[in-house]
Structures are given as C-alpha cells and as structure tokens.
Amino acid sequence: MDALAGLLDGPRARGAFLLRMVMEPPWSVRIEDRAPLCLMSMTRGEAWIVPSAGSDPVLLRPGDIAIARGPRPYTVADAPGTSARSRIGPGGVCTTLYGEPLSESMRLGVRTWGNAPDGSATMLIGTYLLEGEISRRLLDSVPALLVLPADARTGPLLRLLDDEISQDEPGQSVVLDRLLDLLLIAGLRTWFARPGGRAPAWYVAMGDPVVGQALRLLQNDPARPWTVAGLAAATGVSRAALARRFTELVGEPPMAYLTGWRFAVAADLLRGSDATVEAVARKVGYSGSFAFSTAFKRVRGMSPQEYRGTPAEPLDAPAEPLDDGLPNRQQISPDA
Fold first, then answer.
1. CA-based nearest residue to 17, from 89, 72, 91
2. What is the pLDDT of residue 328?
C-alpha cells in the first residue's frame, strides 16, 4: 500500500454526495455542511470561492479543480461581492438563509440542481461525507482551500464525471464514487508534485529506495511484530543505517511511525466497519482486546467502544501524541 492507496482507505467515497449545479447570475451559495472534503470543478462559466477566514476569494474557471477541506464554511458565488441567497447544511440539505427548504424547488433533474435549467455557470460537486484517520495523515498537509488549474490528466476524468453524474443506471453511485476518488488522487498528485506543494515528509520518503520500502512494509502489515532489526533485514540495510535514514526523511523513528499507523488503521476500522474490538486488535498487532483497549484509551482518552460511538473530529483538529503500549524493544538508537 503506498501513500495514495492509504488515502483511499481514509476518505474513500462511499455514497458520496454528487451534484451538478446550474446557475444564472446573480447567485451565491453558503456552504456550511461541515463535510470533511469537497471537490468542485466548473464545466461552463466561472465561479468564485470565498473562504470565511479572511482569505482572498479564488476564481474557478472551466477545468480547474478546487479541493476544500472542512469543517470551515465558505461561499461559492458568481462574484465575490454577491450576497448569499441559499445555504447548504449538514447532509447536503439546501435551504434559504431563513431555513425554508429549497431542495425540491431548485431540482432540475437527476443529481442536477440550480436556479435556471440553461444557466451560464455549471459546476460539478463531489462531497465526501466521512473522514478517516489514515487520510488525516495525508490531508493535514493540504491547505483549507486548494485550486488546481486545468490539467491534461484530470480533464478526461472531469468529462467522464460530467457524462455520468446525471445517469440513473444500476450501480451508478459506485461508478460516481470511484470517479470522485480518481479525481481526488489526480489532484493531490498534481499538488504534491508542485514546488510549493508541501507534501508530508513520509509521502516524499516513499520515493527513497530504502525508506520507501520500509514504509510500505509497515503499512501493508501493521499486525506483524516489527522491530527495527527485522525491518532493516527486510530492506537489506543495517539496523543503524535504516534507523538513521528513516528518522532523517520521515521525521520520526520507524517504530514511532508504526505506532501512529497502527492507531490510524484501528480508528478507521472502529468507525468504518462492524469488526469486533478483538478483531481490530489483532489486525494492528495486539494479541487480545485488553492490551489494545488499554493502549487505545491512553492515546485517545476513551475506550475503543466509546470511540466507535462518537462523531469524527474535523480534519484540521490537532492530533495527540501516540504511544502504542507495546514493549520498548522497538526503540533502538540510530547508533546501535
């Protein structure tokens, strides 16, 4: 599993909210749905995205892709100064600013919504309704609002999404979910490849022949009782060389990274599956639920069952330091 494959195990589109919005000026929509992630792209006309935190408005032209991270609200409009006339709340519910429903009155067809059937501005919108701990490790490095110019790789995907979004065929939601995932991956690849992309250190380290291999081994098999010595043997270098190079490129020792990955996987399994706590414990390297629950509560401040029943934190919430409670055999000095 590489970094972007790990992303798909995080905010993977499952029954995502997808919509084609068709508007004629003047128009302005306030987005307050608190969704963890939203992709937007114009297929016709232009739109402005106006963040609420004092940042400058951003113009979105045909083919451009905007990635907005929740939960902060923002406004999408024909012009930066146009006052909001409608509001999108949690769950994609659309109302006036006074709470009057608009979903039916502005419905224009299958997954199509707006104020004019032949409006001069058309936007494709894909909203991820769920978030994950694994994705947090990647998306925390992405700005709250990211706009990527039209690109030869994303263009065909946008055209395909535009063709498919208004179809009403069996399994259509799955098709749209996967297209949305592909667009997100293509967009993030483009962003991280740019000079100012600020990719996380561990993402960049994936390109290193030794550390990249070590990261993949840890991610693919977090349940294995890894040690630095075992990981070094698997990557064909000495223990000291691996520990030193891994820490230099990733910013933390191999076993500290593994601890974080284990708890990210566990958190996603608890909230995204019906696996028992015992099963989750074994998937991330614990022999039983008691030791796992004790370590999980120390890190998260609540038991696995309590965590499963609480709503997810926003993607921009600060992460807590991790300690997996496993024996200290993994902590080996780079000079050992």
1. 91
2. 36
Between the CA of residue 319 and those of 29, 115, 264, 322, what are the distances in Å?
Answer: 32, 41, 11, 9
Instruction: Supply the pLDDT for residue 1.
Output: 46
Identify whether the C-beta of residue 183 lies closer than 8 Å to the C-beta of residue 157.
yes
Residue type, 26: P
Residue where the block lists tokens 């820490």: 247
Residue 22 CB partners (closer than 8 Å, separation 6+): 108, 112, 113, 114, 115, 116, 117, 118, 119, 121, 122
With a CB cutoff of 8 Å and minimum separation 6, the contacts of 6 are 134, 135, 137, 138, 219
Cβ distance 43 to 75 under 8 Å?
no
- Average of per-residue pLDDT across 266-289: 92
Torsion sign (Cα): 307, 308, 313, 319: positive
Positive or negative, the Cα torsion across 138, 194, 38, 165? Answer: negative
Q: What is the pTM of this model?
A: 0.75
